[in-house]
Structure formats: structure tokens, C-alpha cells
């Protein structure tokens, strides 16, 4: 074990596990020869974010720094594994275990490492597609990277928690954040709950034995799901237009007179329209989901309830709902999480508008669309990263708590 601490692979060679020893030695030599200097440069860039304006590119240095951290973690993990493996081998040798011959060692290594060889590429891909952007965004939140501090002309500096403090103390940021966050919560709860309620209500009605032409009705109710969502949203955007939209021109004005409802220019009506659109888009999937669950409930339960004199509401409350929630709770939780970050409806309908006085977000902007505007419209990258972190924490905490409490993850006998 001490030999492996001094240099990776020496302990394996001493224990006569030559294949492992050679692999570890090659990895450490490659690290020392090719990666050590790059990692040192990356850590310097991560610490300083550059020292010469116009020459050092702070964001590029931040990228190299994040890659250096990932490299250190990977190499460190392999180094620790090398030490632990050498110790385990030494313990086995003391107990009388004899090292395998080369061919046996190769076969054993292949059999043992096959799952790791198959999942390795996926792990590497996840590292650079998920972990790297996540670390980069988190670190970006602690800088002053914005339109006025953009490399290479200017350097980006570390500012600590100043961005988080500004979000809750500077009036324009505070007012906008509270408004957008509260609307995001309302949007998530109301829109998702409404689409779940509509889907469940229609599924229960269609599942009633007295209903005829069930296949036709189910086909019609699932049709909105077959149309691409962005097409539906753009059509509704035109229909809700204040001036030439069909809803105002053909329904509201002929029936009630006046100039119609300001669907796109008033925040309240714009939010109402967006909730209705999301309900239309979301209920077909839930209707199909609930329909399958309802058909799996044994009719014996309802017959026993009829014998006991249960009402329709009691059968729904004590038989239908528990079974539906038991089977679909994880998917329903995902619906809430998805709508919390539902960018498409907000942006395609009216791009988060209408404008709101003394705020840098629109009346229907949720957190994710606000982050988009901060990133691409005003180039306030650091504040966008702060809000992204807050969104990630909220969704992670909510999902973790709900999944822990969901009965779908407990024993089926508890239902």
C-alpha cells in the first residue's frame, strides 16, 4: 500500500498484479507528462481570472479551471482506488491468496470490469454535458460577468456573494425577483393542478360503464397531444391577440361589446390565457395516463362498495383516488417540476410580456424565461447564473422531498 502511495501501480507490481500495476503506472505517467502543466495553468486561471486586460480571457480561464477541477477529481479518485486496491491485495496475500497468471488476470479483469467499461463512456459524457456546465454556472454566479465586464477587453473578477445580496437588496432586482418568483409558483401550482384535474375528471367520466363510443371520445380528447406544442401555442397567440384575435373579434365583442379583453397587454389577462393554454396542452397526456390506471382497478372493489352502500363520492375518494395517486404520483410530481421550468409556453405566447414598470422582467415571465432574457437580451450572465442556482435548489429540494414521501416508493401492501 505504501508503494502505491509513493507512485500509483508500484503496490500492484509488488503484489504481482502486473496488469493492474501497468495500467496505474501508465495513467500516472500520462498525467505527470501531459496534464500536470495544463491543470496548474487551469488552477491559476481559476484563482485569478486573468491579470492582463485585453490579453487574458477570464471566461476561457474559468472554463480551463473547471476542467482542471474535474481532472483533479478523476485522477484523485483513481489514485485513491489504486491505494485501496493495493491494500486489499496485500491482505488477501497474507491470508494465502495467490496472484492469478496473466491470462487469468486478463479474463478476470474483463469479467469484473465489463459493467464499468459499458457505463464509462456514459459517465464521461455526463461529466462534460451535465457536471461541467453545472459547475461553470455555479462559479459564474460569484463573478461580475455582465455587459460591462466582458472579456477580452475587460477582466472578470470574483465578487463573492454580492450578486446574491443584490438580488434581495437592490430595489429593481428585489421587486423583479419577488414578482417573478411569486408568479412562477402560482403558475406552477395552478396550471399543473388544473391540467391534472381536467385529465382526471375526463378519464373518470369516459371510464363510466354507461358511456358509449369510448374509443371515439378518447381519440378526440387525445388529439391536442398529437399536435406539436409550439404550433398550438402560436395559434393561440394569434387567437388571443388584442386587435385581430378570433377570441375578441368573434366571441367577446359580439357578446359583450366594447373593445374586447386586453389578453396580451394586461398582465392579469395574459397570465390567465397562459394558464388556459397550458391546461389545453397538458390534459391529454394525463387523461391517457389516468385512463390506463382506471382500467386496471378491479371491478370487485366497486361491487363491494356498492354492497356496503357507498356513494359515488365515497367510491371515488376511497378507491379511485388512492389507486390513481399510487400509480401516477412520480409522474405528477414531474409535471409540477416540468411546468416550473416550462419555457416554451411563456416565450412563444408573448415572450414573457407585457412590460412591467420598474422591473426588468415581463408580466408573464417565470424564472426560466427571465434567465433567458438576462442572458441573451441584457448580457447579465452572473445574475442569470444566480437565479439558475436558486431554481435548481428549489426544484431539487421539492423533488427530493416529494419522492421521499410518495407512497409509490413504499411497500405495495401499505395501500
TrEMBL record:
One of its GO terms (molecular function) is ABC-type maltose transporter activity. The keyword tRNA-binding does not apply. Keywords: Cell membrane, Membrane, Sugar transport, Transmembrane, Transmembrane helix, Transport. It holds the Pfam family BPD_transp_1. It is found in: Cell membrane. InterPro entries: MetI-like, MetI-like_sf. It comes from the Bacteria. Part of the ABC transporter complex MalEFGK involved in maltose/maltodextrin import. Probably responsible for the translocation of the substrate across the membrane. This is Maltose/maltodextrin transport system permease protein. It comes from Aquibacillus koreensis.
Amino acid at each position: 500500500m505504501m508503494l502505491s502511495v509513493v507512485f500509483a501501480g508500484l503496490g500492484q507490481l509488488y503484489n504481482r498484479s502486473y496488469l493492474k500495476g501497468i495500467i496505474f503506472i501508465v495513467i500516472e505517467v500520462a498525467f505527470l507528462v501531459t496534464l500536470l502543466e495544463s491543470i496548474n495553468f487551469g488552477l491559476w486561471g481559476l484563482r485569478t481570472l486573468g491579470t492582463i486586460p485585453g490579453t487574458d480571457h477570464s471566461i476561457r480561464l474559468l472554463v480551463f479551471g473547471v476542467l482542471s477541477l474535474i481532472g483533479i477529481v478523476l485522477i484523485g479518485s483513481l489514485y485513491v482506488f489504486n491505494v485501496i486496491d493495493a491494500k486489499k491485495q496485500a491482505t488477501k496475500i497474507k491470508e494465502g491468496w495467490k496472484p492469478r497468471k496473466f491470462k487469468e488476470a486478463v479474463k478476470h479483469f474483463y469479467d469484473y470490469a465489463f459493467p464499468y467499461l459499458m457505463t464509462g463512456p456514459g459517465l464521461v459524457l455526463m461529466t462534460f454535458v451535465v457536471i461541467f456546465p453545472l459547475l461553470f454556472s455555479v462559479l459564474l454566479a460569484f463573478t461580475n460577468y455582465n455587459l460591462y465586464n466582458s472579456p477580452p477587453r475587460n477582466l472578470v473578477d470574483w465578487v463573492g456573494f454580492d450578486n446574491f445580496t443584490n438580488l434581495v437588496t437592490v430595489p429593481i432586482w428585489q421587486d423583479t425577483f419577488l414578482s417573478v418568483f411569486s408568479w412562477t409558483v402560482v403558475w406552477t401550482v395552478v396550471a399543473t393542478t388544473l391540467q391534472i384535474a381536467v385529465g382526471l375528471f375526463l378519464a373518470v367520466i369516459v371510464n363510466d360503464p354507461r358511456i358509449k363510443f369510448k374509443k371515439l371520445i378518447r381519440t378526440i380528447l387525445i388529439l391536442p397531444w398529437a399536435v406539436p406544442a409550439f404550433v398550438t401555442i402560436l395559434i393561440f397567440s394569434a387567437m388571443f391577440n388584442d386587435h385581430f384575435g378570433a377570441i375578441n373579434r368573434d366571441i367577446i365583442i359580439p357578446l359583450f361589446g366594447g373593445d374586447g379583453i386586453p389578453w396580451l397587454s394586461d398582465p392579469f389577462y395574459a397570465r390567465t390565457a397562459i394558464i388556459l393554454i397550458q391546461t389545453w396542452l397538458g390534459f391529454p397526456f394525463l387523461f391517457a395516463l389516468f385512463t390506463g390506471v382506471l382500467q386496471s382497478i378491479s371491478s370487485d372493489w366497486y361491487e363491494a362498495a356498492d354492497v356496503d352502500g357507498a356513494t359515488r363520492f365515497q367510491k371515488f375518494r376511497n378507491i379511485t383516488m388512492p389507486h390513481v395517486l399510487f400509480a401516477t404520483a412520480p409522474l405528477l410530481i414531474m409535471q409540477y417540476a416540468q411546468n416550473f421550468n416550462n419555457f416554451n409556453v411563456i416565450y412563444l405566447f408573448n415572450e414573457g410580456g407585457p412590460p412591467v414598470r420598474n422591473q426588468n422582467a415581463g408580466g408573464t415571465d417565470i424564472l426560466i424565461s427571465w434567465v433567458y432574457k438576462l442572458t441573451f437580451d441584457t448580457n447579465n450572465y452572473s445574475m442569470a447564473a444566480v437565479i439558475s442556482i436558486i431554481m435548481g435548489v428549489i426544484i431539487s429540494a421539492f423533488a427530493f422531498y416529494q419522492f421521499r414521501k410518495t407512497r409509490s416508493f413504499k411497500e405495495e401492501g401499505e395501500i
